[in-house]
UniProtKB/TrEMBL annotation:
SUPFAM superfamilies linked: POZ domain (SSF54695)
Lineage per the UniProt record: Eukaryota, Fungi, Dikarya, Ascomycota, Pezizomycotina
Record domain BTB: where: 23-90
Entry-linked SMART domains: BTB
Source species, domain of life: Eukaryota
UniProt xrefs under PANTHER family: BTB DOMAIN-CONTAINING PROTEIN-RELATED, BTB_POZ DOMAIN PROTEIN
Listed name of the protein: BTB domain-containing protein
Gene3D superfamilies membership: Potassium Channel Kv1.1, Chain A (3.30.710.10)
Length: 133
C-alpha cells in the first residue's frame, strides 16, 4: 500500500504562507507585502477580523496597510500566526541592533494582543539585556 504524502494542516498552512497560494487578504507595511489567509490571521487577531468585516474599505478590498508598524516586526508576527514559533533570525534586519528589534517585536505583539508572542519576545529581550552586564 503506498504511503500518503498528504501534509499536515500545519505544514499546508506554512507552505501557503511562504507561497501566497490561496491567499485572500493582503497586508502591507512600508513597501513590504504579505499575501495571507483570513482564516489564519483574523481568527487570531481581533484587529484584523474587525478590519475586514463591516463597512471599512479594508473589508471591500481585503487589504490592510499597517502604516504605524515596523515591517520586520510585522513579519515576525505573521510568521508567529502561521508557525506558532519565533522566527527572529529570519526577520532580523541587518541594519538594526538586536535589542531594538526585539523591543519592536514586543511592541507589535502587545499592540495586536498576542500574549504568547509578547511573552517570548519579552524573554528574549530580557535575556539579551542580562547579557549586557
Amino acid at each position: 500500500m503506498p504511503e500518503d504524502n498528504v501534509p499536515s494542516i500545519k505544514e499546508a498552512l506554512q507552505k501557503c504562507f511562504e507561497t501566497g497560494e490561496y491567499a485572500d487578504m493582503t497586508i502591507t507595511c512600508s513597501g513590504k507585502t504579505w499575501q495571507v489567509h483570513k482564516v489564519v490571521v483574523c481568527s487570531q487577531v481581533p484587529f484584523f477580523a474587525k478590519a475586514v468585516t463591516g463597512k471599512f474599505k479594508e473589508a471591500r478590498n481585503s487589504c490592510i496597510d499597517l502604516v504605524d508598524d515596523d515591517p520586520s516586526a510585522v513579519d515576525v508576527m505573521l510568521r508567529w500566526l502561521y508557525y506558532g514559533t519565533l522566527h527572529f533570525q529570519e526577520c532580523w534586519p541587518s541594519d538594526m541592533c538586536g535589542t531594538k528589534f526585539l523591543a519592536r517585536c514586543y511592541k507589535i505583539a502587545d499592540k495586536y494582543l498576542l500574549a504568547d508572542l509578547r511573552t517570548s519576545a519579552s524573554q528574549k529581550l530580557r535575556s539579551r539585556l542580562m547579557d549586557c552586564k
